[in-house]
Amino acid sequence: MSGTADHARRSGRPAQGEPILERAFKVLDAFAHAGESLPLKTLASRAGLPKSTTSRIAAQLVAVGALERLENGEFVVGLHMLEIATLAPRGHGLRAAALPFMEDLHRVTRQHILLAVRDSHEAVLVERLSAHEAVTVKYRVGGRLPLDTTGIGIALLAYATDQVREDVLAKAASPARVRQLIAMTRSEGVCAAAVPNPVDDGPATMSTVAAPILGRGGAALGAISLVAPDEAGTQAASRIALRTASLAISRALETTAACGTRRAVRQVPAGA
Question: Which of 46, 61, 89, 264 shows a CA-CA span of 20 to 30 A to 108?
């Protein structure tokens, strides 16, 4: 390591030449909870950047609407980020197709219904429907979930690349159990298991049933899951309901894609 880089590491300053965009995302990634507001000192500490650098970047992010500054001087995520996020095709298109089926499941079960996509070695939650009487969970839209300790994560992991599966299994606390659940997902189309509850004041474990949403080529476009406080959530009726919903969402996505292709063909000028 060069003397300059070593000094930067020890001083907490970014290495010379680190792209401004990377530092900007470090600032944005400092926000861990929905609606969270952070003072500059905390923002800098979480981002791993000097306070002066964080202040300058935060001001630029405020100017473009990515952050907002409250009257007390603290920062919150800006509405412009929400506007951009809703355009993400992997989240928004899947959500639009899945939401009617998620609402049906939610009305019947009165529990948490989750929708997620895989991003590298994690799952990203793109929608969540919850009833007031449902067990408290920490999952939030836009939040990241592990692939090895959540039902929806295992449903996605079952159709990830071999390399991703091996990477996740290498770090899993119970790789044999994860492999068993992966095999269940691929053979039955659903994963049913007890999973740890990340909320301290709730039950130690919860039940979950999850099903992958597959594309025509067999790749997982996303996954849907039911999270309940007891084993009732993993019974046959729940498995059938989740499996049926996942297949219906897959068909809805195929129909949407086919309609888009037909529109595109009609718009091509004659003789082009």
Answer: 89
The pLDDT score that the predictor gives to residue 160 is 96
| DSSP run (H or E) holding 237 | helix 236-267
pLDDT digits (tens, 9 = 90+) for 48-63: 999 999 999 999 999 9
Distance CA 266, CA 135 (A): 49
pLDDT at 18: 64
HSE at residue 183, side-chain half, CA atoms within 13 A, is 6
The gap between the terminal CA atoms of the chain, to the nearest Å, is: 57
Pairing of strands 205-214, 191-196: antiparallel
Query: Residue 143: what are its φ and ψ, rounded to 5°?
Result: -80, 165
Comparing CA positions, the residue from 144, 142, 145, 112 lying closest to residue 35 is: 142
- Which residue bears the tokens 């091996």? 166
Residue by residue, DSSP assigns 9-65 as HHHTPPPTT--HHHHHHHHHHT--STT--B-HHHHHHHHTS-HHHHHHHHHHHHHTT
* Pairing verdict, β 205-214 and 220-228: antiparallel
Q: 17-47 pLDDT, tens per residue? A: 568 899 998 999 898 776 788 999 999 999 9
Helices (H), 33-188: 40-47, 51-63, 79-85, 89-109, 151-157, 162-171, 175-188
pLDDT at 1: 42
**Chain centroid to CA 89:** 14
